[in-house]
Amino acid sequence: MATPGYGKRSAPDQLTRTNNDFAHLPSREAAIAAYLDRLPDGADISVKTLAKHLPYGQCALSTALNRLQGAGHLRRGRECVTADDGSSRWITRSWFSRTARDDDWWAAFTRGDVPQQRRPTRSRAHILLAALGRTAPVLSLSQADCATLAPLVTEWFARGASEADVLSALTAGLPTPVHHPASLVRKRLTSKLPPPPAPRPPLRVLECANCGTPGRPESLPGGRCSACRGERASAQPPAPLSAATVHNRAAQIRAAMSQRRQEKART
User: Fold this and answer.
1) Distance of alpha carbon 180 from alpha carbon 172, whole angstroms
2) Element (H or E) spanning 206, and its range?
């Protein structure tokens, strides 16, 4: 496994695994792709580490990974992630997709337009409900009640609510007496559900598979930049001159013309 937070990341919305997922690839690339597909997220899929577990050298693995990238199964780049303390940092990512994707799909994924898999939070929701009776004894719930109501709490968490937010909504201003705790909890979880937060696209940058140069998705078809594809870079237009430079050059031209007129007058 790679350092926590790094390593393989599975692309979302893949088709169900079959025996023919990589039949379109050469035998070596198909074998490597099948191996990568079965590794868990977070596994180290660097060339050096793969060479320790597969019967291929680092050069052969590097070539094979580039071909997997060209075939749409792999992209490498960086993603901005936010830590628990609110700080942000850029992390190297290697996204693998069992289902081959074209450049347009990877471009949409980079922008965050592709649906993302959501990590389940049922255990967190269940724990909150099970401990609810400690905060408000009249809201003590059974195991069956917790299992039934947990998806509602999960939706609160998905919308950015904290445990304190949920507890406050469930325990503030309780009636006396509470005849049906589970019914009251369900009603409050439903009627006080906060609105969904505005979607925030992830910050991602793709890199060339050969040289590692970052670039926009449309400039990296097949995962490679124009230079590594052997294309000649288009000439860049010269940078515009500053106002001061323009004025200085104009003054020099006027002085030269004046000097020439004086020389002609003397002759």
Assistant:
1) 16
2) strand 203-207
12 upstream amide cis, omega within 30 of 0: no
Closest CA to 79 of 157, 159, 7: 7
Written as six digits, the tokens of 5 are 């937070």
State the Cα–Cα distance between residues 200 and 191, nearest whole angstrom.
26
The per-residue pLDDT for range 211-221, each reduced to its tens digit, is 888 888 888 88
Burial class (CB in 10 A: 0-12, 13-18, 19+), 181: buried
Domain boundaries, the chain: 1-116+203-267, 122-191
Q: What span, in angstroms and rounded, lies between the C-alpha atoms of 195 and 73?
A: 36
Q: Is residue 205 within a helix (H) or strand (E), and if so which, with residue range?
A: strand 203-207
Paired tokens of 238: 């010269």
58-92: pLDDT as tens digits = 999 999 999 999 999 999 888 887 776 777 888 88
pLDDT of residue 63: 94
206-218: b (≥16 Cβ within 10 Å) or e: bbbbeeeeeeebe
The pTM of the full predicted model, rounded to 2 decimals, is: 0.47
pLDDT of 114: 67
